[in-house]
Structure formats: structure tokens, C-alpha cells
Design a protein that fits this description.
GO terms for molecular function: DNA binding; sigma factor activity. This is RNA polymerase sigma24 factor. This protein is mostly helical. The chain has helices spanning 3-29, 32-49, 56-76, 95-112, 116-127, 132-139, 143-161, 171-174.
Length: 175
């Protein structure tokens, strides 16, 4: 396959997966600008490995693993300063819509308080829909670690959110 064909395939994959990777990055870090940075780093690494990873399922797994590992590495950097998003939103016409938005914001803010590994575990398990085994492979740790990180992360969210965690409007966040 020629270099032009490789670039075209990569461009097609990038166009198809960019938004999904960016949303996942946002759920990991809680900041759209940082999510853009994580997405960019992930796709740069994928471009470097493009000729070695050829099957679509392998591409998705490589991309997912790369994104989570980039996030964990970046979150360890002590000098990284993060801005906090404001929870104050402009008035919205529908009360139900505003309640759903507020619930989603509460969950995102609560996720931001979790340690990076717990947060990554919950995003992999509940947003990406990965099994315990798949999450362990992505995070390069044991199944027991995934189970304990999931349990601790959910317990922390329940302490912070109470019943808001069971809100059906969060299904949109999980997708």
C-alpha cells in the first residue's frame, strides 16, 4: 500500500472517530481544551503506529488504550494547572431540560474529584461500555484492581451525588 493510501485511510479513520475520542477525553479530564489536547496526542501516536495496527477492532482498542494512558500520564504532571468550569448556566426555557443539564454537570463535577485511575476506570466501564477484562487491558492492571477502582469510584460518586447518579438522563452521558 502506498503512503498516499495510508494517509487517506488514516484521514478517514480520524474523521470517523474524532468526535467519539474527544467526548471520551472530555469525560476523562472534564475540560474541553484539555480533551482537545488529549485527542490530538492520541491521534499523533496512532498516526505513528498506523502501519502496525491494521484491523478496525485493533485500531479502536489501540486508540482507546492510548487515550487513557495519555490522560493518566498528563494527569500526573504536577505543573498542569486546570481551570474549573462554572456550574452557572444561562436560563433555559424548559425546566426538565435544565434539570437534566444540571444533573449531568453535577456528575461531571463529581467525576473531576476522583483520582485519575478511578475516573479512567469509570469512563472505560460505563461510558465506553468495556468489560472488566477489557478495562484491565486498557489500563494495564489486574481485574481485581479494576473491580476495586470501580467500587471505590462509584462509592465516592454516590457519597457526592446521592440519588442523582440514578437519573435516567445520564444515559446520554454514558453514550
Amino acid at each position: 500500500m502506498t503512503g498516499i493510501e495510508h494517509r487517506r485511510e488514516f484521514a478517514n479513520y480520524f474523521a470517523a472517530r474524532r468526535d467519539t475520542v474527544r467526548r471520551t477525553a472530555y469525560l476523562l479530564c472534564g475540560d474541553w481544551h484539555w480533551a482537545d489536547d488529549l485527542t490530538q496526542i492520541t491521534f499523533v501516536r496512532l498516526a505513528d503506529a498506523w502501519s502496525r495496527v491494521r484491523q478496525p477492532a485493533a485500531l479502536d482498542a489501540f486508540t482507546r488504550t492510548c487515550l487513557v494512558r495519555v490522560y493518566l500520564a498528563e494527569s500526573r504532571r504536577l505543573f498542569r494547572r486546570r481551570e474549573r468550569a462554572s456550574a452557572v448556566l444561562p436560563e433555559v426555557g424548559q425546566a426538565d431540560h435544565a434539570d437534566r443539564i444540571n444533573t449531568r454537570l453535577e456528575v461531571i463535577e463529581a467525576m473531576a474529584t476522583l483520582p485519575p485511575r478511578q475516573r479512567a476506570t469509570l469512563v472505560c466501564r460505563f461510558y465506553q461500555g468495556l468489560s472488566v477484562q477489557e478495562t484491565a487491558e486498557v489500563l494495564d492492571c489486574s481485574i481485581g484492581t479494576i473491580k476495586s477502582q470501580t467500587s471505590r469510584g462509584l462509592a465516592a460518586l454516590r457519597r457526592l451525588l446521592g440519588t442523582a447518579l440514578d437519573d435516567p438522563s445520564l444515559d446520554e452521558v454514558r453514550r
